[in-house]
Design a protein that fits this description.
single chain; 160 residues; alpha+beta; Pnp Oxidase, Chain A; 9-stranded mixed sheet; 40% strand; globular
């Protein structure tokens, strides 16, 4: 048995994810740390201006895909949206942290810092019960002959 996934469950679990793989315009995915803004259905990323992602977005917004496979959060997802470059200094101030600071010699005002905004359109999500829950459900199914409960799965659509 699989339960229906809620958007709230997705966002709560995403808060426990440190990073995933971001792809823009079908290019190879690269590891990135996301900063979620659930009120706007947006994922933010801090990167450098010379990256393939930034160069791809220089000509305008493009389709993006963010892949999450995080066992600790029991979250597996394919998240789609529209990526664009942002020069929002207030947002950068809000998001800046020690992790981002470690990548840029000049800190937050380093001229190489670039914000990427991904406005989410849809996500296919699997929210599992975790390793112990998985083992329990397998054992239970052997005794009861019922199908194991593997957690929640669903497709979430986000308003544009």
């Amino acid at each position: 048995m699989t339960h229906t996934l809620t958007a709230d469950d997705f966002w709560k679990r995403l808060d426990d994810v440190q990073s995933g793989m971001l792809s823009v315009d079908g290019a190879r995915p690269v590891p990135m740390s996301q900063y979620a803004d659930r009120d706007l259905n947006v994922l933010w990323f801090i990167t450098a201006k010379g990256t393939d992602i930034v160069e791809s977005l220089a000509s305008g917004p493009k389709e993006a895909r963010y892949l999450v496979a995080e066992g600790a959060a029991n979250l597996y997802a394919t998240v789609d949206g529209k990526a664009s470059l942002s020069n929002d200094k207030a947002k950068l101030d809000e998001l800046w942290n020690v992790v981002a600071d470690s990548w840029f010699e000049g800190g937050e005002r380093d001229p190489d810092v670039q914000l990427v905004r991904v406005d989410l359109t849809e996500a296919e999500v699997w929210a599992t019960t975790g390793r112990l829950g998985f083992l329990y459900e397998l054992a239970k199914s052997q005794v009861s002959e019922a199908k194991p409960d593997m957690g929640a799965h669903g497709t979430l659509r986000f308003a544009a």
